[in-house]
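Incident log, support desk, overnight shift.

02:14 A customer reports that sequence design results differ from what the structure should imply. Their input is reproduced verbatim below. On-call engineer (initials T.W.) acknowledged and began investigating.
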């Protein structure tokens, strides 16, 4: 950590210690802050919060230096949670290298805590990242490892099985992918009461999205487009950025099904959300869509989408310069 970063972390650590003036311990203050940052990410995207999460990991590291044994363990657990969250922010920004780095750090930190569920969750997240990177050598093995760590028939086991299903699709094994997704669907009612805080977002919409992703990579574009549409309808309010990701993936499936006008319209909606949130996952899918629509340059909807995407990417490049 650079000297300036250490100074900033020390300043924030002093503020965290002062949280008792507001009726909270530093640990409670940092937990509350993490929840607020997660809500902000859901609505505004990762760019608004990534620097703050970096700073708060530094705060926790400062606080751990002179913490008592029990507090030190709780802080280490919270540091793991912040590290996993930071990896997610980088994943959504499209920086998979940094996402992998922070997942590796979180995995290491989770072992110092001794929380098997947290370690299992981080391992499942590693499988998810491997799926996003289309890493055929890792995705299924990581997902199976996460399931071995999880309690049998638990929500975390179902989460990992969901990522395994997509991994099988990536490898071209349609029957194994469908079998895994069906098992997760059948387990949803049973895992709903699981007390673990990890994977609480596992629901019918999330499973349907992964079924749709599997159908898309298997070349079943019409089925994938319909499945994405169903997942979008099931999505709870407040998941603004995820709606954009699903719309972008639906648009790619529609283009693969040779329904270019619908694809371009869906892509335009997703682009608006990408501009609001800065989600690299959305832009990655829209870049694929742009290529898929190259066969229909004269269609008005297609031309409008491709022009809007080009303008958006140019604007983003100018901002980064």
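02:41 Re-run completed on a clean worker. Output:
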């Amino acid at each position: 950590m650079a000297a300036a970063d250490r100074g900033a972390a020390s300043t924030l650590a002093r503020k965290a210690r002062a949280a008792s003036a507001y009726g909270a311990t530093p640990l409670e203050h940092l937990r509350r802050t993490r929840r607020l940052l997660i809500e902000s990410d859901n609505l505004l995207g990762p760019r608004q919060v990534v620097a703050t999460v970096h700073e708060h990991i530094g705060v926790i590291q400062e606080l751990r230096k002179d913490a008592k044994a029990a507090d030190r363990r709780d802080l280490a657990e919270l540091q793991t949670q912040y590290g996993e969250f930071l990896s997610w922010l980088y994943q959504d920004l499209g920086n998979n290298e940094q996402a992998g780095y922070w997942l590796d750090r979180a995995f290491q930190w989770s072992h110092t805590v001794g929380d098997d569920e947290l370690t299992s969750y981080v391992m499942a997240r590693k499988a998810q990242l491997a799926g996003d990177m289309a890493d055929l050598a890792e995705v299924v093995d990581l997902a199976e490892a996460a399931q071995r760590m999880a309690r049998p028939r638990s929500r975390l086991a179902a989460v990992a099985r969901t990522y395994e299903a997509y991994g099988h699709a990536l490898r071209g094994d349609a029957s194994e992918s469908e079998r895994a997704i069906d098992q997760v669907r059948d387990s949803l009612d049973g895992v709903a009461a699981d007390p673990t805080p990890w994977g609480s977002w596992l629901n019918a919409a999330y499973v349907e999205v992964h079924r749709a992703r599997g159908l898309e990579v298997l070349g079943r574009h019409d089925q994938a487009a319909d499945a994405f549409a169903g997942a979008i309808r099931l999505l709870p309010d407040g998941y603004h950025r995820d709606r954009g990701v699903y719309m972008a993936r639906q648009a790619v499936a529609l283009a693969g099904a040779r329904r270019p006008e619908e694809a371009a319209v869906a892509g335009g909606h997703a682009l608006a959300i990408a501009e609001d949130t800065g989600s690299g996952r959305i832009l990655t899918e829209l870049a694929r869509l742009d290529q898929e629509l190259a066969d229909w340059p004269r269609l008005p909807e297609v031309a409008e989408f491709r022009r809007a995407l080009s303008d958006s990417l140019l604007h983003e490049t100018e901002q980064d310069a």
